Protein: Flavin reductase family protein
Amino acid sequence: MTHFAPVALPHANRLINHGPTVLITSVFEGRRNVMAAAWSMPVEFSPPRVAVVIDKSTFTRELLTAHGGFGLCVPATAAIDLTYAVGSCSGREVDKFAQWGIEATPGPVLGVPLIEANCLAWMECRLIREPHTEDAYDTCFAEVVSAAADSRVFAHGHWTLNGSNAALRSIHHLGGGLFARAGEGIQAQALKPA
Structure:
């Protein structure tokens, strides 16, 4: 049973504004791939746009450039080993979805593979083509065209991180296969003038 619910596009950037490691999915002409990316971030609110670093020589970059879109999925703690695995080999040699039994469904707008099992959220992203930079830079810019999240941890446009959902936390790559798990949320209080 899925706990995923649509996320309003004005709130989509909140899915990654805390800097989680993400899984980037891509597909073109029957070939598909998934890779891990440690560097992604929101860059604009309306329409929601994101930036993600995807090496221009990778199979993922080849597929998403040909397709014009990609999936950006936020893995939960339970997906640490899978995240490390898909980030440690090339999809040119192996279908990573088949290799590790990853189930994906086509996105509602672009048809890119989206992963919900052991993930907290996903976004379908339409590549913003910048011909003068595509061959020079690893950073890709995209517009978010649809989004969904696990309603047990993200609802009404906000993350809810507390002791009752510790297993449903994002992961953050520290290098060399070491990850940190997001901690509990702490609510700021308004300061009174001195």
